[in-house]
Automatic annotation (TrEMBL):
Annotated InterPro entries: NAD-cap_RNA_hydrolase_NudC (IPR050241), NADH_PPase-like_N (IPR015375), NudC-like_C (IPR049734), NUDIX_hydrolase-like_dom_sf (IPR015797), NUDIX_hydrolase_dom (IPR000086), RNA_Hydrolase_NudC (IPR022925), Znr_NADH_PPase (IPR015376)
Protein species of origin: Pseudomonas parafulva
Name recorded for this polypeptide: NAD-capped RNA hydrolase NudC
Residue ranges annotated for the Nudix hydrolase domain, each copy included: 139-262
Keywords: Hydrolase, Magnesium, Manganese, Metal-binding, NAD, Zinc
Binding site for substrate: R82, E125, Y138, Q206, C207, W208, P209, F210, P211, H212, S213, A255
Xref: NCBIfam families: PRK00241.1
GN (gene name): nudC
Length: 277
């Protein structure tokens, strides 16, 4: 994580500071970026669902204004988080990635999931509280595995119907209750392409705020089987030589890192930096 940015639970009653505005259309962006003076932003007549103090940037407190809907503000526009990942600077993406997860959680927990009563924000911890049934709700993180399967100079890459046209990536899937990340990996590979793997090695993890995943990255070697694609999940899957790869995922994604790392090691090149470092 950037030294300029640290997460923290801040009381919204704290004066001044910076703020970001998040709506179903993305983040508000002005000439200077997505971080605004908080006092100015709160004077713009925004339809605020809730406000959360989320951390410090360059020593200044940062707050999130989660909005019911986007609003037109002169000189500003709305931009999705993926755009910041692809085009924005890493510092801004780190702040907004965290803000997006807190905003999604706050929006989805305005009412108690047990009794349906309105929930209130606890000021000293990142939690929502139901006074009617005493339920506390904390931000959710969904663990998932992502794996690059290799066979010598070949890597297994696949396409989901939801991908950008032409792009191939690694296999991934969410862990089921009671399942380890390694169990999840083996099951997902069997389900999606009907292959068996061996020599599973953990590589690293990445927060994936679309909307609240923790991607656990692995490398595994091909063991047995022929590719059989899972209907409705896998549009295409094939082996690619490291010298002839298709269009790949965004450079800041752990999927791209897993691919670039293996290719670099296979070809004797310098290893890439882990996303965010």
């Amino acid at each position: 994580m950037s030294a300029r940015w640290t997460t923290a639970v801040l009381d919204p009653q704290t004066p001044a500071g910076l703020a970001v505005a998040h709506s179903p259309e993305g983040f508000l962006v002005g000439e200077e970026g997505a971080l605004f003076q908080r006092d100015w932003l709160k004077r713009q007549g925004l339809d605020v669902l809730c406000e959360h103090g989320i951390g410090h940037f360059d020593g200044q407190p940062v707050f999130l204004l989660e909005l019911a809907k986007a609003a037109r503000i002169a000189g500003c526009s709305w931009r999705g988080l993926r755009t910041f990942m692809l085009e924005g600077d890493a510092e801004t993406y780190t702040v907004l990635g965290y803000a997006a997860q807190i905003g999604t959680w706050a929006r989805e927990h305005r009412f108690c999931g047990s009794c349906g009563q309105p929930m209130s924000q606890i000021r000293w911890e990142r939690a929502m509280h139901c006074s009617a049934c005493d339920l506390r709700s904390y931000p959710r993180i969904s663990p998932s595995m992502i794996v690059l399967i290799t066979r010598g100079d070949e890597v297994l890459l696949a396409r989901s119907p939801r991908f950008v046209a032409g792009v191939y990536s690694t296999l991934a899937g969410f862990a089921e209750p009671g399942e380890s990340a390694e169990d999840c990996l083996v099951r997902e590979v069997r389900e999606e392409v009907a292959l068996e793997v061996k020599n599973i090695q953990y590589v690293g993890s990445q927060c994936w705020p679309f909307p609240h995943s923790m991607m656990l990255g692995f490398h595994a070697e091909y063991a047995a089987g022929d590719i059989v694609m899972q209907p409705d999940e896998i549009e295409d899957a094939r082996w690619f030589n490291v010298h002839d790869l298709p269009p790949l995922p965004a450079g800041r994604s752990i999927a791209r890192y897993l691919i670039d790392l293996y290719v670099a090691r296979r070809l004797g090149h310098a290893e890439p930096a882990f996303p965010g470092q």
